[in-house]
From TrEMBL:
Gene3D superfamilies: 2,3-Dihydroxybiphenyl 1,2-Dioxygenase, domain 1 (3.10.180.10). It comes from Pedobacter rhodius. Residues 12-133 form the VOC domain. This is VOC family protein.
Length: 134
């Protein structure tokens, strides 16, 4: 009975897997947009790219999606940056369109807690949020 009362430690996030149609395009996108460092992956089959997300875990890109799908904005990955303004400049230089939560192109959402957010899609249409979580 005493063993059942013991609380187990909370699970921690290990990785997020994103299924992509073009691994090279997706790898180049995530590496250049987010400056993510690649880490070794054990398969060496040309179908995987792994990135470190620091203490948050890893991002695994997996080649094999047959087509791009329409994804709901509510299902998104979120990255925090120190300067949303500098990040927006980077997106503009890469011709990557972004929008606020309601969908106004080139606009920024200002949350009630003061956090600024933008949303855009990766090459496969997966939604991404970037914020200046402070």
């Amino acid at each position: 009975m005493a063993q059942e009362d013991k609380k187990q430690p909370a699970a921690v996030l290990n990785h997020i897997a994103v299924y992509v149609t073009d691994l090279k395009l997706a790898t180049d996108f995530y590496e250049s947009v987010f400056n993510l460092p690649q880490i070794p992956e054990p398969f060496h089959d040309g179908k995987h790219t792994w990135f470190s997300l620091g203490s948050a875990g890893q991002l695994h890109l997996i080649q094999g999606a047959k087509s791009k799908e329409i994804h709901d904005k509510n299902e998104h990955l979120c990255f925090s940056v120190t300067s949303i303004d500098d990040f927006i400049i980077k997106l503009k230089t890469k011709n990557i369109a972004f929008e606020n939560w309601p969908g106004a192109e080139g606009a920024v959402t200002l949350r009630i807690d003061g956090v600024k957010q933008i949303y855009f899609r990766d090459p496969d249409g997966h939604w991404l949020e970037v914020n200046n979580d402070r």
